[in-house]
Amino acid sequence: MNPVNYLYLSALLFTIGASGVLIRRNAIVLFMCVELMLNASNLALVTFSRLHGTLDGQIIAFFTMVVAAAEVVVGLAIIVSIFRTRHSASVDDSNLMKL
Amino acid sequence: MNSLIPLLVAAPLAGAALLLLGGPALDRFGHWLATALAALSFGFGLALFSDMLGRGAEHRAVGQHLFSWIPVNGFQADVSFRLDQLSMTFVLLITGVGTLIHLYSVGYMAHDERRRRFFAYLNLFLAAMLLLVVADNYLLLYVGWEGVGLASYLLIGFWQHKPSAATAAKKAFIVNRVGDMGLSIAIMLMFVEFGSFAFDPVFGGASRASEGRLTAIGLMLLLAACGKSAQVPLQSWLGDAMEGPTPVSALIHAATMVTAGVYLITRSAAIFNLAPDAQTAVVVVGAVTLLFGAIVGCAKDDIKKALAGSTMSQIGYMILVAGLGPIGYAFAIMHLVTHGFFKAGLFLGAGSVMHGMNDEVSMRHYGGLRKYMPVTFVTFGLGYLAIIGFPGLSGFFSKDKIIEAAFAKGGTEGWILGLCALVGTTVTAFYMTRVMLLTFFGEKRWQPDAEGNAPHPHESPKTMTIPMILLAIGSVFAGGLFALNDSFLTWLEPVTGHAEGNSPLAPLTVTLLTTACMLAGVGLSYVMYGRSAVPVVPPVGSPLTRAARRDLLQDEFNHAALVRPGSALTATLVYFDSRGLDGFVNGLAATIGGVSSRLRRVQNGFVRSYALSMFGGTLLLVATTLLMRSF
Amino acid sequence: MITNLAAVTGTTSTGEAVQFWVLAVVAVGGALGMLLMRKAVHSALCLAATMLALAVCYMAQGAVFLGVVQIVVYTGAIMMLFLFVVMLVGVTSEDSLKEQLKGQRFAAVLCGLGFGVLLIAGIANAKLDHFTGLHEANAEGNVPGLARLIFTRYVWAFEVTGALLITAAIGAMVLTHREHVKAPKTQRELAAQRVKDNLQLPPLPAPGVYARHNAVDIPALLPDGTIAEDSVMETLRQRGQIRDVSQAMLQRMAELENTTADWLGRPSSERPPVAGPRKSLEPVPANNVNNVNNANNAGVPKADEEGAE
């Protein structure tokens, strides 16, 4: 098997994640989709690391994970505070910032 | 000694700044401060004059470079001064007459609440006028030129609560703008032609320039002179300028500022000498104005407006003779100086009369004042004799020389000009005698003023009479002094040059003719106004009189020739602007607005919708990248 | 053992190939599950499965450290955080299937398909037949190799990431922190207030009288058989997660009677009437009618819900 299959898998997962962001309305699920996209790109990075024979790809994937953790923490905090005031986790309900 | 030159300008300028910025604290003594600074400037002038006399005729012109104003490569504007015999003459006239009029104003404006401001403007005027005459380049001269325009505007409209004064100030300013445009164009042409606008390079390079270019510069300078000196066709503002306080009329609109045009032409002699066409234009303007002003002066009942017409006419004489070239420059300046004395004196006399008559200006409401205002009568009378050219007084010598020079032009041209000048003499004598008779002789025709107070004519205070006496002395003796041994001619010759004309008439003949014409005018006037009673209500008069009362229809002409076409043009442009340009612009805006209000729906506030657009954009970017790479 | 699998260049061992196909199916299945499950909890569990599969993929490709970190940090910490928030928001809440934005779902699917096709076509076009492999880079072990890079070449990024994490932690605290404008009421004050208002002097009734479900969400029954909504906690009431079992019990009783009657062979005229649905005393507050509003008592129709939709 050619390891390039990992890249196909990554592309597939990324696309599913992106579609999920567009389709789902629950903010938490939306976040999960974003996480899935990050993971997919991590997989691509790890595969490229193997492709080139250097560890830099893995380092970047590592940093991606750290940043993703930070993002999740802040994002979930936002969701919680929105839920507190609006009693809803649907992103469609927070549409007051339009004209 | 040369370092005194900037101080000439600085002293009154400092006065103006102090008085304007000093606030009410200076109300009590501000007018004396201004007068003292004017006198100080006069003192500097005298010191420089004595210093100049101490040098030989060839070394009298001195310069003083103060600082570089706009030092740009190839464009060097300096603040530097030149004091030669011509400037010196003006400096003494301006500061001398200026100081006297400051003194006069102390009395005249005694009851005005805004006296401090008035004196500040007077000082500002002195500074600007001095800058104008001592500047060493046209750009600095232009600064002074605009400065006197500003001061004139401020002083004409000094009683701004009167709508007529405010309008007159605006009129003077706008008409002067036309002339100023001429000067600025002339300066630009000079810079193009000579690469400089300092006097020396311009005059030095004039001989190498093409005649057409020189004619253009000359005509533009003439336009400037017409504006500032109230010459036809830009004469209309001077009559209305009499709305200003009388000392202003005396200083600015009789003695000094309005003669700036003569100064400009004389100063630019090197250009005019090489541009005969421009000279012809100057002469024509002078001759026309000389008759125009005289005719207007005959018909006016307002004493100041009659004098204003006279001023216009006398400056016409100066312009005429300045247009004759080296034959006449010196005589133009000589008449300018004597005119400065007697016309200032006449205006001060008129102011004194008005002061005594509750600010009444119509001569038909005067009469028999000689007993009530003896000093005014005597000084005004001496000024009168001087202006009509009574033998032995100032005007006689200067005007005689002008008429002589006009004939000396030679040929048909000379005859026409000479006859114009002679007719002018008759008319001058006529209207000045009229003024004299209506004001000081005959029965009393006094009318109560608006509040019903009957006038109680009285002699003016000392501060007003002393300047009048001094100016009267000048009017009597200045001409004789200048004519003695041709001393004035010799004095100015190094600057203006001099050429003897070739007159077809002997000088004595001209003198006799002039005197005869003058006497004819006096006699005619006496017959018309001295022997019969003068009606209080002006008679209807001939069409010419009616036209002259309305300044020979100058305003109607301007309205028909300039204002109405201008309005029509503006209306057309506004139409095109609102329909064409605005239509396009508004249409564009409306289109964008319409598109935007539709596009606005894209901003629906749903975050997933935005995410979709981002994702779509990414899709496009990736597709484009791949497509580009595959080629 | 796993690193050995990655030793081959250009192609992989059969073991890894088998492992890949299994994991790929799990990962894609998990991702699709996450996308399609209506309940957030199920989505989270599906995502956890995908992440675990990916972790093994990382290890198979020589990124042992990352694989472990993936399991510990992602599956362990982040997914737990997700679940925690899901519980907070409402574990039983489901997305309604009704799409509110016109054309959004269609456009999303279209874009997703296009994007996937593009990516896969791009990868297929790239010349990726030579894989260097990591056996050289991992010669002294994966973790020392990574450490060498992190603390030399990427040390600056590492420090900055640390700062970012601190900032995120503080940000989360600030976001979720609620300032008390005034001191919270003490128990004595609350009691005094209750007496003053004269609304509910004795303690609230306890829930869970018929403990057939998650007891706290089952309200107590009043003497006449209706439910006492006060007995359910405020949060659950706001979410509308109250299970009214009073009807169910009566229904059940009626069914029991029916069965007995059937067994005894009684005629239908002698049977007692089945208790019909009764109106509840208190309608559900209007602000609970949103997508969090779950059909908790779907089996027992409530009179006031018929007109609510």
Q: Roughly how much helix do the residues of chain A carry, as a percent range?
A: over 70%
Residue-averaged pLDDT of chain B, rounded? 90
- Put simply, the count of helices of chain A is 3
Structural class of chain A: mainly alpha
Radius of gyration of chain B: 30 Å
Radius of gyration of chain A: 17 Å
- Please summarize the sheet with the most strands of chain B: 2 strands, antiparallel
H/E series of chain A, N to C?
A: HHH
Q: Fraction of residues of chain B in helices?
A: over 70%
Biggest beta-sheet profile of chain A: none
Distance between termini of chain A?
A: 54 Å
What is the subunit organization of this protein? heterotrimer
Mean pLDDT score of chain A: 87
Strand content of chain A: under 5%
Strand content of chain B: under 5%
- Poorly predicted parts of chain A: none
Distance between the termini of chain B: 86 Å
Annotation, overall tally of beta strands of chain B: 2
Strand order of the biggest β-sheet of chain B: 1-2
Protein name (chain A): NADH-quinone oxidoreductase subunit K
EC number (chain A): 7.1.1.-
Main location (chain A): membrane
Keywords (chain A): Cell membrane, Membrane, NAD, Oxidoreductase, Quinone, Translocase, Transmembrane, Transmembrane helix, Transport
Describe this structure in words.
The complex is a heterotrimer of chains A (99), B (631) and C (309). Chain A has three helices and no strands. By secondary structure, chain A is mainly α. In chain A, α1 packs antiparallel against α2 and α2 runs antiparallel to α3 (56-86). The longest helix of chain A has 31 residues, at 56-86. Chain A is elongated and about 50 Å long. Chain A starts with a helix and ends in a 13-residue tail after the last helix. Chain B is mostly helical and 631 residues long. In chain B, 72% of the residues lie in helices and 3% in strands. Chain B has a two-stranded antiparallel ribbon with strand order 1-2. The model of chain B has no long low-confidence stretch (mean pLDDT 90). Chain C is extended. Helix content of chain C is 54%, strand content 1%. Chain C is mostly helical. Chain C has a two-stranded antiparallel ribbon with strand order 1-2. In chain C, β1 and β2 form a beta hairpin. Chain C has eleven helices and two strands; from the N terminus they run ααααααααββααα. Classes of the chains: A mainly alpha (99), B mainly alpha (631), C mainly alpha (309). Chains in contact: A-B, A-C, B-C. At the A-C interface, α1, α2 and α3 of A face α2, α3, α4, α5 and α6 of C. Chain A: Belongs to the complex I subunit 4L family. Chain A: It comes from Kitasatospora cathayae. Chain A: It is found in: Cell membrane; Membrane.
